[in-house]
Amino acid sequence: MQKIRRTLWACAAVIVAQAGWSETLTDTLISAYNNSNLLEQQRAVLRASDEDVAIAVSALRPILAYSASRSYSWDLDTEIIAPGVREDSQSIINVIELTAQMSLYQFGRNRLAVEAAREAVLATRQALVAQEQDVLFAAVQAYTSVRRAQAFVDLRRNNVRVLEEELRAANDRFDVGEVTRTDVAQAEAFLAEAEANLVAAVGDLEIAREAFNLAVGRYPGDLAPPPAFSTEPASLEYARDVAVRTHPSILQQQFAVSAQEINVDIAQREILPALSATASTGYSDAPSSSLRNNMEPVASLGLEFGGPIYQGGRINALYRKSVSVLEQSRAALLQATLNVQERVGFAWANFRVAKASLEATDRQIDAAQVAFDGTREEATLGARTTLDVLNAEQTLLDARGSRIEALTVEQDAYYFLLATMGLLTADKLGLDVVAYDPEAYYNANRAAPSVFTSEQGIKLDKVLKSLGKQ
Q: Is the pTM of this model over 0.85?
């Protein structure tokens, strides 16, 4: 038994080694924000959405292209120009050409496409905010889980120490004939159960540490108690009002509706004509009356105006489809609002219950402590048995365990309530981080710069490489 206890203490010491400083919940949230691969992934999705604006802008600009060609042709119907001599039936044409094409007027379709792309960017930004909330809430849960597991390890360890003393006292009383062998066996059984529970608690702590590493990007240090709640919503109605105005899921759907309304306008205008201009210049050695088989400069300039007459019903089908997608987006917005309101109500109730439960466990611990102290005192006078003392000690242990659970639930419930209100972000929490600026990449690329990678994109790539993300 002594060997088992020494092994338990060694394992616990390795797991809960002090790091020389107390890590706060704020420290954990900062690490989660800085280390999250999920945020990096969503930021890349946002940068890809930013490029859709540049792609739409490019449709407003001229298209320049170059080409070089060499073609062979044969005239299969040649005439005899002399006995045994036919007209040359083969020709080779070389062309070097630079062409330019530009859409002059599309009845607003290209301009609207840019606006739709911008609305899609704004929706994707809200998706990034939603991902940020998920990452930070996962960090909160990881933090409270490790603290809960550590508290249970401490509680189980203390329980083992108390039961060792109870067993020693039972043996002493057995030696002088005050108790029977049954009392000693009961104390031994309780101690064996406590040691098994300690092993299980140490295992739970190891699991919680691994979950912390996944959510935060590193293993935890010595975790300090969580801070007091800075602000609490005054009422459920207030919390819901804030959520409807700020929750990223609702805002994302609002921008999606705006983008689709523009797409419907674009689909309506597909029946309208378009005006475009083309120009080309280059060299060609096509046969002519004055020159033959010599490269000569050529140029052309033209305007094209036209529109669809009949495309088999395709234009009308695309319009009906865009209207249906708009109806879908509006329904999704209404459903997202209902979902957020429901989650706020659930989070509010859960938080109030958690606070009441924590207050109740405090009273439970006070009463159980008084009962345990009295039972142990009465046992020294012979009025109580060893089993009574052990049962009272177990009741106190259960009460302390309930408080650990209640404290964890309260912390999780509070930050879940903030998340449902759209307030669990690095900015609103005041975290000391270098916040990702969604405007930086967008502003560098919205004008569709004529380089393969913008300066901002190069900087972001360097940052990603330095963080080991690429």
A: no
